[in-house]
């Protein structure tokens, strides 16, 4: 099991990062100051990774890299950054920082990036470009939309919660299009990846040069922009200008969560840019709304894990499948992957049962929350939760409300104890 040293002055962020890495099968070590970090690095075993904040008590990520050089150590060091300009990010990479994780995107980026550097015992399973086989009607409709969009040159925004597989869908549009013979460039709107080349003698802004450079490199091809809602207003303006004035021969596919629509309504994301990017769209449903897919997805992940480890495949028993179908999955497929692989790593024998599954009790707000919903949608979700769980206690858990509150909601909508409408 790979060790990952976490160095950060924020105890709350340390807990979040340690939880994410533990679920992914790593063994995290947490420290908060420079002296403790040096002592911990000296004890790390081969294959370990260091994740350090740009600034922490008594030191910085760069100081830790420099100290490793003096001690002839070379554990890859990933920096947690907040708001740095492109020049500062490039300087970090040139001075020995292996990679960057944006603090606001820790939950999306940390395990994936650590998995790129943890060697030789990397147990993190990376999802490839293929779509995971699924049986739900919602996903069959998405597969049809992918083919239809791929046959055009339309820009597209793929909406969905964290971990629903938006990037795989974006890649499939590219792979099924006529643009596969031309470049594909992946950008993270809120991360260090949005750093191109700048000509110091140019009369244009540095941001303009850097973004425009990607369009030159991708001519005739496709740019996928992940988490477009994280794009700063300045970069939005530059991107809009390039699209309006230069008309580049590049298709743009973006991924976004629902906050993008709110940003457009509140004028924190430029509406004219939004409509240029959203010439068409796909909305990916959360996993809790396609529970019929869960057992197939889990089986697919277990098969890939077994092939990677060259070990016999483990299977889920009926109790495990039931527990997986009842969990609300705020982290969607990404959370399902981490949960199933963690269970496979620790389960004794070749069968995974409910007792082997560990679910995170931290529950961010999800679309299943009944707050601020119209009456029809509220009633439908109550009935759907009851049908999934089979009991009102289980339904309350899925809906993230108390049993007392759910009784009141049932009375409000005329739902009897058997889950039927009427008295």
Overall description:
With 423 residues, the chain is an alpha/beta fold. The chain has helices spanning 11-23, 34-43, 61-70, 86-94, 106-117, 137-150, 166-175, 206-217, 233-246, 259-265, 271-277, 294-309, 318-326, 332-346, 375-389, 392-399, 403-413, and strands spanning 3-7, 27-31, 49-53, 55-56, 59-60, 77-81, 99-102, 156-159, 184-188, 222-226, 251-256, 280-283, 315-316, 351-352. It is 45% helix and 13% strand. Strands 2-1-3-6-7 form a 5-stranded parallel beta sheet, with helices on both faces. The protein folds into 4 domains: 3-117, 3-Layer(aba) Sandwich (Rossmann fold), CATH 3.40.50.2300; 137-283, P-loop containing nucleotide triphosphate hydrolases (Rossmann fold); 290-356, Helicase, Ruva Protein, domain 3 (Orthogonal Bundle), CATH 1.10.8; 368-423, Arc Repressor Mutant, subunit A, CATH 1.10.10.
Give a concise summary:
This protein is 45% helix and 13% strand. It is α/β, with parallel strands linked by helices.
CA-atom Rg in angstroms: 23 Å
Task: Give the overall shape.
Answer: globular
Instruction: Report mean pLDDT, rounded to a whole number.
Output: 87
Strand content: 5-15%
Secondary structure category? alpha/beta
Would you count the extended β strands for me? 14
CATH class of the largest domain: Alpha Beta
Report helical residue fraction. Answer: 40-55%
How does CATH name the architecture of the largest domain? 3-Layer(aba) Sandwich
CATH superfamily of the largest domain: P-loop containing nucleotide triphosphate hydrolases
Assembly type of the chains comes to single chain
Main sheet specs: 5 strands, parallel
Could you list the spans in which at least 5 consecutive residues all have pLDDT below 50? 364-372
Major sheet strand order:
2-1-3-6-7
CATH topology of the largest domain: Rossmann fold
DSSP summary: helix tally? 17
Tally the structural domains.
4
Beginning-to-end CA distance, first to last residue: 57 Å
